[in-house]
Amino acid sequence: MESTYNDFSKIQSQTISGTWDMVIKSCDKMIDNIKSKNERLSKLNSNENPNVIRILDIGSSHGRNSIMPINLIISNVLKQFPSQCFEVYHEDLPENNFSLLFKEISDNENSYIKLSNQIYFYAIGNSFYNQLVPSNSIDYVFSFSASHWDIYNDSFHYDKVSIGIIYKERSKEYKKYCIDNLYKNFSLRAKELKKGGIFLVTIINENECTNVENDSLYQLFCLFKTLWREIANENLISFNEVEKMAIPINVYKKDEVYDAIKLVETDHQLKLVTIEQNVQKFSDSHSLFLSDQEKSEILFSTMNAACESSLKNFIKGDQNTKDSLYKLFISKFLNHIKVSPLINIDYLFSYYSIIFEKIC
């Protein structure tokens, strides 16, 4: 059985909390733009806006972490336009369990749907590397902890010792690939946004000030590979399957992020409003007094919830075979950290928080 993302998404939730000031700032910017548009067109005789405001959530998974920013956005809009109607679109890959998403939105006592009886929500089973909604239809897009995901490419995502490429020498081809990926993401959101629309995105980036030894995620991903090799040594899975195992992520460099921003500003009039760099630490979301074993188990559970389905794709056989082998892997990991847990777990990753505004 796969891990439930909602149950192990505290680290991802902390990324949203760490960007909260930018959520507020970007929401205020959107509201100001809507007011200006209404005044300019002289379509209203009151302080209420009859048009639908559409919000697009990129990488929703099972929805729990999406509720907090959507609550803020809708609440702030309702203060200005009490009778406002909203449509919320939650995007994730087709294999996402959207039943859990709908259940979370319907049952969570803090759900945004409790703010008004004029809020409608939908799911989109598609990749954010495709256009998700009609052009010029969205007022606000946000994407937290999603933009590093990619489609697996053996030329760029394979690593001999780790399931996740975090520290990788950049060939000219890979650098161009990374810039193109970011540009595609940004430019598609530019097409989807209305004039005056806002795009808030976080981009995991390679922190030049941190080395491999201090990177908790990289150490975890190396241990993943080591334990899968043990299973291969027991002839339960082929070495070929294990060697190919990787999660398709890109950890972007500073110049790649800025190059993509320049391109999209020039080509699509998606204006950079604000960019900030943040560091995500384990201690931001969990107690400092946990044992190394407890920290290792929490970090594993969090990352495994995001990675499990990707890794199972490399295992040959039917679903029972995949589930059985993965259950063995989890057991091996938990037994391993009882004897030799990961140590000095704290630094996880750094990321850019970026606000864009569509200016025409």
UniProtKB/TrEMBL annotation:
Pfam families on file: Methyltransf_7
InterPro entries for the chain: MeTrfase_7, MeTrfase_capping, SAM-dependent_MTases_sf
A GO MF term: metal ion binding
Gene3D superfamilies reported for this sequence: Methyltransferase, alpha-helical capping domain (1.10.1200.270), Vaccinia Virus protein VP39 (3.40.50.150)
Keywords: Magnesium, Metal-binding
The protein's name: SAM dependent carboxyl methyltransferase
Species annotation: Dictyostelium firmibasis
Species classification: Eukaryota, Amoebozoa, Evosea, Eumycetozoa, Dictyostelia
